UniProtKB/TrEMBL annotation:
Residues 1-95 are annotated as: Disordered. Residues 8-26, 78-87 have a biased composition (Polar residues). This is Uncharacterized protein. Residues 48-74 have a biased composition (Basic residues).
Amino acid sequence: MPRMSKKYCTTTSPSKMGFSQKSSCKAQGYLKRTSKRNKGKYVISPKYKSKKSKRSKQSKISKRSKQSKKRGIHPGKINNSLYSNGKNKPRIKSGYGSAEIARETLKNIKGHSCSYKMQIVNTMYNRAKHHKYQTSGMKKAMKVFKNWLSKNK
């Protein structure tokens, strides 16, 4: 049986835990029985009761930016999604239906970071490659993307 984490044991109410969770938390010393007066129910040990601190929005924002620095993302950006800018609008017009559209996609990704370009081109190439109903236009687009990938790797 895996051990339950300290966070789980100290934040979850014992009444909401199952038998195995209770026994794991009890074995680690996070839970103790109450007096016989309370019918011996389990409660979180007083020394492990969590103290919830009230944080302002500013501290949450600064915490986010610290986390994003750790991950290698720009500190101000919270959403670093490949296909959207957080407003459900596509960032760039892209496609893999024909060689013309593939060249248009390569023009549209200029000005973005190297890793972003690689993600876009790799995605378009693999979508065309594994498409269920592949056309000759898609095969030509795959050649365009493959040439770009071989030049930029």
